[in-house]
């Protein structure tokens, strides 16, 4: 396919719009994924995706499913913009005289895109996870307190403590005060371990699936082909790297529930999960992640390939006139 050259501002706008639409649609499932992944053997609060969402609505209200969404909506624009634009940049520079890229070069372009995006992804995920998992830890504490009261005399029952949950701003300030900028990049290695392989799988798979829907090499595939290609490639890559996502989520969680392990690094986390929870624990939340990533990247590719930004940028001069 002879790719149409799109300006960098258009790429960034397309990527940003795609991220905003996608995150808004699938954030509750992403919240459930984080809570399911952080559950360890012991006091388990949720048995499935639906159970997690139902209990979240009952205890925290409808908007409880969107805890941490503001962080994502703020940072997903540069994150998705960097990812999609970087992939295009590397694909362009790895191509020879506009010839079709080999699979290896497509994978190298994806690797470059995944490496670039962690600049924004790591602090975004770090803050999002704290906010998403706060409800699970609070619910666990309430359950433990209720069980303790049942085992003691009613007269000894104390007034429940008022629950306070930190905001993203408070968490950021505390991390910067105590650990500096490195505090926001906790889990950087695990994020690279997830995002680089994800991009290596996703971008070549999407490009080749999308080409199957092209009737003419010089004409873009229909939008529904881009959507389905993004869904299939996204869900496939998401499940493939889910073990890395579990490790990343555990490492980036600053608070732990009752009797839950702490970890000193990637190897320590991998060892403890394997020994104490079994190999299946590495696929906790895999179907949630697939449900999040499939429409997220399907929508992202439709917006990106339809080129909303090009239309908006073309309209600016007319509007000024």
Alpha plus pi helix count: 11
Major beta sheet summary: none
State the end-to-end CA separation.
Answer: 36 Å
Provide the gyration radius in Å: 22 Å
Average pLDDT, all residues: 82
Structural summary, described in words:
With 321 residues, the protein is mainly alpha-helical. The chain has helices spanning 8-38, 49-60, 69-94, 103-151, 168-179, 188-212, 223-240, 242-252, 266-277, 286-306, 308-320. It is elongated. The model has no long low-confidence stretch (mean pLDDT 82).
Question: What's the arrangement of secondary structure elements?
Answer:
Layout: H1 8-38, H2 49-60, H3 69-94, H4 103-151, H5 168-179, H6 188-212, H7 223-240, H8 242-252, H9 266-277, H10 286-306, H11 308-320
């Amino acid at each position: 396919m002879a790719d149409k050259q799109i300006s960098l501002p258009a790429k960034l706008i397309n990527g940003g719009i795609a991220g905003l639409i996608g995150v808004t649609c699938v954030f509750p499932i992403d919240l459930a994924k984080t809570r399911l992944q952080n559950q360890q053997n012991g006091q388990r609060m949720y048995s499935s995706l639906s159970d997690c969402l139902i209990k979240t609505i009952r205890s925290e209200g409808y908007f409880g499913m969107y805890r941490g969404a503001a962080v994502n909506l703020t940072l997903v624009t540069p994150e998705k913009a960097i990812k999609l634009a970087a992939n295009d940049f590397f694909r362009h520079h790895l191509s020879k005289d506009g010839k079709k890229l080999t699979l290896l070069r497509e994978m190298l372009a994806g690797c470059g895109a995944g490496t670039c995006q962690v600049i924004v992804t790591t602090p975004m995920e770090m803050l999002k996870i704290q906010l998403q998992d706060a409800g699970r830890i609070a619910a666990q504490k309430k359950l433990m307190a209720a069980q303790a009261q049942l085992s003691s005399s009613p007269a000894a029952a104390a007034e429940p403590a008022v629950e306070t949950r930190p905001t993203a701003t408070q968490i950021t300030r505390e991390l910067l005060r105590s650990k500096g900028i490195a505090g926001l990049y906790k889990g950087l290695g695990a994020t690279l371990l997830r995002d680089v392989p994800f991009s290596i799988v996703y971008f070549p798979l999407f490009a080749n699936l999308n080409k199957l829907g092209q009737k003419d090499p010089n004409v873009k595939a229909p939008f529904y082909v881009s959507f389905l290609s993004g869904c299939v490639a996204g869900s496939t890559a998401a499940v493939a790297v889910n073990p890395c996502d579990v490790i990343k989520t555990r490492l980036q969680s600053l608070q732990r529930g009752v009797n839950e392990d702490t970890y000193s690094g990637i190897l320590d986390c991998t060892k403890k999960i394997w020994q104490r929870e079994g190999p299946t624990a590495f696929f906790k939340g895999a179907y949630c992640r697939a449900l999040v990533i499939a429409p997220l990247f399907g929508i992202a590719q439709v917006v990106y390939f339809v080129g909303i930004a090009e239309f908006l940028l073309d309209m600016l001069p007319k509007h000024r006139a």
